[in-house]
Amino acid sequence: MDKTVLVIEDEPNIIEAISFILSRDGWRVATHSNGVDAVSAVGARKPDLVILDVMLPGRSGYDILRDLRAATETADLPVLMLTARGQTKDREMAESLGASRFMAKPFSNSEVLEAVRDLVRP
Amino acid sequence: MASLNLLVFVCLGYVAVLFLVAFGAERAAMRGQAAWLRSPMVYTLSLSIYCTAWTFYGAVGYAARSGMEYLTIYIGPSLMMIGWFWAVRKLVRIGRSQNITSIADLISSRYGKSTLLGVLVTGLAVVGTTPYIALQLQSVTLSVASFSVADATVRPLDDQNSTALWVAVGLAFFTVLFGTRNLDANERHHGVVMAIAVEAVVKLFALLAVGVFVVWGIGGGIGATMDRIDASSLGDWQVQPDRWMALSALSAAAFLCLPRMFQVLVVENEDERHLRTAAWAFPLYLLAMSLFVVPIAVVGLDLMPAGTNPDLFVLSVPLAEGRNGLALLSFLGGFSSATSMVIVASIALSTMVSNHIVMPIWLSRQQAGAMVSGDVRNIVILSRRFSIVGVLALGYLYYRISGGSTALAAIGLISFSGVAQFLPALIGGIFWRGANRVGALAGLVTGGLVWLWCLFLPSFGPDVVIPAGTMAEGPFGMGWLKPYALFGIPGLDPLVHGVFWSLSLNALVFVTASVFTFPTPLERLQGAQFVNVFDHTAPTRGWSGGMAQSEDLMIMAQRILGATEAQDLFRRAALDQGLEGYLPEPTPAFLLQLERELAGSVGAATAHAMIAQITGGANISVEDLLAVADETAQIMEHSSQLEAKSAELTRTARQLRTANEKLTALSVQKDAFLSQISHELRTPMTSIRAFSEILRDAEDLEGEAKAKYAGIIHGEAIRLTRLLDDLLDLSVLENGQVRMNIAPGRLSDFLDHAVAATGADRGKLRLHREGREDTVLVTDGDRLAQVFINLIANAQKYCDAPEPTLTIGARAVDGLLMIDFVDNGTGVAPDQQDMIFEKFARVGEQQAGGAGLGLAICREIMARLGGSITYLPGQQGAAFRVTLPLRDAMAAQ
Amino acid sequence: MSDLRNRLFLGRGSYRQRRLADAARLMPILGGVLLMLPLLWPRQGIGEASEVPPTSSAMIYIFGVWVALVLASLYLSHNLDPTETEARGDDDPSRGG
Fold it and tell me: What is the CATH number of the domain that holds A100?
C-alpha cells in the first residue's frame, strides 16, 4: 500500500496528530497549511485523498472544495472534510458541495483511520 | 551731556521690559487670567498705534511748516470713533461673526471669498505700508543721531544704517516671537497687545511731559505761551480749506483701512462693548497727543538755530535746554511710537501675505486636496514668520534705497491715500448689498493705478521714476494725463488732486461696475450676511452636507487646528448631534462651524477652498439659490424651515439606516458567536483528544515523543483554560459582578508592567513613550494594565508596517487623562471601527492567536473604571484612546 | 393693569434708546460741521488783515469743540445699551428708516 494523503489544515498540532496516525498505518502524508494555494497544491501532489479543514487562513475550505469538484482531474478525488463548528448547516453545506465524508472535531483517531481506509479502497 | 552709551543702555532696558510685559501677558492668558488683560482701556490704548513716530515727531515739524493743518490727521479718526455707531461697530460685529483675520480677508470674504481680491488688497497694502515702515526706521535713526551729535565723547555715528538694521532685526525677532505664537486668530495676540498698550502710555506721557516743560518751563505759563504763539510766524490762521477737508477725510478713511488699524480695531477686539469706552477715550487720547504740538513748534522755532530739523524739536528742545532726562523720555516716546507701529503692521501684513498669497499657492500645488502629507499648521506659521521678516526687510531696503531722504517725510500721507483705496469696497461692502466682486476689483484697480501715477511714483522726486518732462507735459505728450493735473485741471494741491481723483474714480467705477454686472450666488449670500449682520441670528447657510467624509474633514482639521483642538471640536459637535465618538454627521451647520474655525487660521477664502475640496465643492444648493432670489423674509424663512426639515429627515433616515445596519451586523455576530465558541473550544480539544489517544494506544512510543505529545496536550489545555477565563471574565464584567481593587498608583508603573508582560521591550515592535506618565491614578491597576497589555499585544500582532512602531502618549485635558496608543500600520478600516469592540470581532481573516475577546474585555474594564476606550480615526495607523477621569487622582495626591 | 403699565414703561425705555442711537449717529456729522466751520473764517492773504483770527483763538475753538464731542460721546456711549436697540432690529442703517 503506497497511497498519499494530503492534509490541508492550519493548526500545527492537529497536522502533527493526523500525520502520526496515518503514517503509522502506512500512508504517505503530505501537508499544506493555507487556503490560498491549496488547489494548486492538490494539483502538484496528486494525492489519493485530501483531508480538508473548513476554516483556513486566506480561503475557506468550501471554496477549495468547489474548485476541486469543478476541475475534471479532481472531480472524483475523495475529500474528507473536517470542521470545528459541527453544526448541521455546516454538514449540509459540505455535502451539497460534494464532500466524500464530513467529520466534526474533535474526532477519535480510529474514526479518522476508518474513514480514510474506507474512502481509498486499494 | 547725554551719553550715547546711556541711551543705548536705557533703550535696551526698555526693550527688555517690553519683552517681560509681553511674556507675562502671554503667560497670564495661557493660565486663563486674560480678563484684566482685555479691559476696554487696553483696547483703547492699543488703538493708539495710529500715532506712529510720524505723528510723535512729525506733527511738531508739520505744525512748524504748515500751522494748524496737522490737526486734520487727528480729527478724522476722532470723528470716526465718535461715530462708532455707523461703521466701526458694524465692522467689529462682522469681523467677529465671520472670524475675519485682516482687511484683505474681509474684502475677499465679502465678495464671494475671492482669492483675486485678497491678493490685490494684500499687494496694495504691502506697497502702501513698506515706505511707512521705512519712515519708522528713519525716525529712530534720526533720533539716535541727534543724541550722538549732542554727545561730545563719541564720534558721530558715521553709519546710521547699522542703527536702522539693528532696530529692524530686533523688531523682527519680537514680532516673530509674540506675533506667531498661536495660529488661531481667535486667540489673538495678548502679549503684543499688552506691550503696545504700555508703549501707548509711554508715548503719551513723554509728549505731555515735553509739552508741560515747554509751556510752563520755557514759555512761562499758558497765557504767555499763547501770546508767544500769536507773535510767531504761525500766529495767523492760515489753513487751506481744500487740504483741511481732504486730509480730514483721508485720515478718517485710513483709520478704517490701514492694515494695522484693522488688526487692532477689529481682529484683536475681544468684546464689542469695548467700543463704548473707545468711543470717547480714543478721541481724548488723540486730543492729548495733539494739545502741545503747536507750543512745542513755536518754542522750537524761537529757540533753535535756523536750519534745525523741526521734525526733531520734541527731542532737540529738551536737549538744548540741558534736560537730558526729559530728552531721554522723549526719545523713548518716539521709540515706542515707531516700534509699536512696525510690530502690528508686520503682523497684519504677514497674516495677509500668508493667507492670501502663500496659502492659495500652496493649496493649488496640492492637487489631491488637503489629504496629502505635511502639517498645514507648520506651513502657515512658517509662512507667517517668513512674511514678517520679509516685510521688515522690505522696509529696511526701502529706507536704504531712498537714502533716508527728506522725501520720506511726505510718505505718510501717500501711504494713507494708498490704503484709503480700500474704502469704497469696504464701505460699499458693508452697507450696500448690490456691491459685487467685479465692481470691487474694477474700483480697486482704477483707484490703485491713479494713486500710483499721481501720488506714489511722483513721491520719489522728479526724474527718479517719472521723468520731469512727463511730469510737466504728460506721458507721450498727452497733457490730460499729467500726474498733477489729470484731465487738464491744473492748480490743485498735488495731494488733494491725487486723493480726489483716485477716490472719486475708484468709487465711480466700483458703483458703475457693480450696477451693470451680476454677482455669484455666494457673493449675494455673503453680501446679505455682511450688510444685515445685526439681523442675522442664524449663520449663513453654505454647505450642503452629506457628501463630505467626516474622517477626511477630521484629518484636515487636525493639520490646521492641531490635534487636540480638532478632536475636541469634533467630539463636541458629535455630542451635540447625540453621537458617540469623534465623527459627527457632516451637517451644513457643522461644516459651517468648521469653516469658520479654519478661517480663523488660514483666512476665509482658503478655508472655503479646503472644505470645497473635500465636500466636492457642492456648496450651494438649489434651495440656497431660491432663498437668495426670493428676498422677502417670509419666503426665505419658509424655505429655510423646509430645508432644515428635509435635512433633518435625511439625517434621521441615515442614522436609522446606520442603526439598522449595526443591529443586523450584531445579530449576525450573535450567530457567529456560538459558532465561534464552538470553534474556539473544539480546536484545542481536537489536539488533546488525538494525542491522548495516541499516548493510550501506541505502546512503542519513545520517551522523547511521549514527553513532546504530553507537552502539546498540556499547552492546549492551558489554551482552553485561558479562553474559558476570558469568557468568564467578560461575562462577569458585563454583569457588573466584579469587584475592583481601587488603589493609587503611578501610570508609568502600569505601563511598565504591561510592556514587560507583553515582552514588547525586547521584540520587533518599537515603543515610543511620551507625555505625562508621572500622573498618579486612583484605579484598579491590574485591570488597567490588562487593558494596556491588550492594546500593546494587538499592535504586536496586527501592525503591518515594515518597522512597526507604537507610540504611547499620555495627556491631561479638562480633568481627563488620555492615553493614546497609536501604531504606524494600516489601521482599522472605517466600516470596521464600530465593530472591533464587539466579541469575537477580529478584523480581517482571523488567525492571530486570540479569541477576539480582548477589546471587548477592555471596553468593559474601562466602563467599570469610569473611563472609556475608543478608536481614534484619522491617525495614520491603528489608534486607541484610553480615557480616565483625573479628578480622583488629584484628590488622592 | 400693572401689566399695561409695565409694557408702557418698556416702550418708553426702548424709545429713549432709539433716540439715543439717533443722536450717536448724528454726532460725527455735527462734529464734522463744527470742525469745518473755521474754514469760513478769514485767513492769511484773504480778507482784511485785522480780521484774521490769531492761532490761539483757533486752538481754543477747535480744542473746545473736541472736548465737547468727547463729553457727548462719553454720555451717549454710557447710556446706550446696544442689545436693547438690537433686539428691536431697527438700528441697521441699510434698512432706512
Answer: 3.40.50.2300
Query: Do B687 and A58 lie within an 8 Å CB cutoff?
Result: no
**pLDDT averages per 10-residue partition of chain B, 893 residues:** 72 87 82 71 90 85 85 91 87 82 89 88 90 85 76 50 79 80 61 88 93 88 85 78 89 92 87 86 93 90 82 86 87 88 88 86 65 63 87 87 61 86 92 90 94 83 70 68 70 83 94 89 78 56 46 71 78 77 72 77 69 55 42 51 75 81 76 75 87 86 86 87 81 75 84 83 81 80 86 82 86 83 83 74 49 80 86 83 72 40
Q: Name the pLDDT band for C66 (thresholds 50, 70, 90).
A: very high
Binned at pLDDT 50, 70 and 90, residue C82 comes out as low
CB contact under 8 A, A17 and B698: no
In this complex, is the C-beta atom of B694 within 8 Å of any C-beta atom belonging to chain A?
A: yes
Comparing C-alpha atoms, which of B262, B267, B268, B259 is closest to residue B126? Answer: B259
Quote the CA–CA distance of B128 and B417 in Å, as a whole number. 8
How is chain C split into domains, by residue range?
A: 25-42+50-86
Between A15-24, B466-475, B564-573, C3-12, the lowest mean confidence (pLDDT) is in: C3-12
Fold designation for B743-892: Heat Shock Protein 90 (3.30.565)
**Do chains A and B have 3 or more beta-carbon pairs under 8 angstroms?**
yes
Burial label for B889, CB within 10 Å (0-12, 13-18, 19+), is: buried
Residue with cell 508592567: B753
Contact assignment for B280 to C77 by CB distance below 8 Å: yes
Convert B254-278 into a string of H (helix), E (strand) and C (coil): HHHHCHHHHHHHHHCCCCCCHHHHH
Tell whether C22 is within 8 A of chain B (Cβ).
no
Is B653-735 in CATH node 1.10.287.130?
yes
Q: Under 8 Å CB-to-CB from C39, ≥6 apart: which residues?
A: B239, B241, B244, B245
Note the pLDDT of residue B232. 80
Residue-level pLDDT at B706: 86
CB A38 within 8 A of CB A59: yes
Q: Which residue of C has its CA nearest to B279?
A: C73
Which chain B residues contact residue A20 at CB under 8 A?
694
What is the amino acid identity at position B576? D
CA–CA distance, B175 with B260 (Å, rounded to integer): 13
Q: Which chain C residue shows the shortest CA-CA distance from B249? A: C32
Look at B230 and C24 and tell me if their CB atoms are within 8 Å: no
Chains that touch A (3 or more CB pairs under 8 A): B
CB neighbour list of residue B73: distance below 8 Å, 6 or more residues apart? B55, B59, B62, B247, B251
**Who's near B856: CB < 8 A, 6+ residues apart?**
B730, B837, B838, B839, B841
Distance from CA of B262 to the nearest CA of C (A): 20
- Report pTM: 0.63
**B686 contact A CB<8A:** yes
* Structural domain that includes position A65: 4-119
Interface contact C23, partner B, CB < 8 A: no
Contact B856, B732 (CB under 8 A): no
Verify C-A touch: 3 or more CB pairs within 8 A. Answer: no
Q: How confident is the model at residue C64 (pLDDT cuts 50, 70, 90)?
A: very high
CATH topology for the B4-29+36-409 domain: Sodium/glucose cotransporter (1.20.1730)
Q: How far is B823 from chain A (nearest CA, A)?
A: 24
Q: What CA–CA distance (Å, rounded) separates B570 from B553? A: 10
> In chain B, what are the domain boundaries?
4-29+36-409, 537-631, 653-735, 743-892
Q: In what order do the strands lie in the sheet with A28-32?
A: A28-32, A4-8, A49-53, A79-83, A101-104
Our count of domains for chain A comes to 1
Task: Please name the chains neighbouring C, where neighbouring means 3+ C-beta pairs under 8 angstroms.
Answer: B
Nearest residue to B67 (alpha-carbon basis) of B313, B214, B248, B235: B235
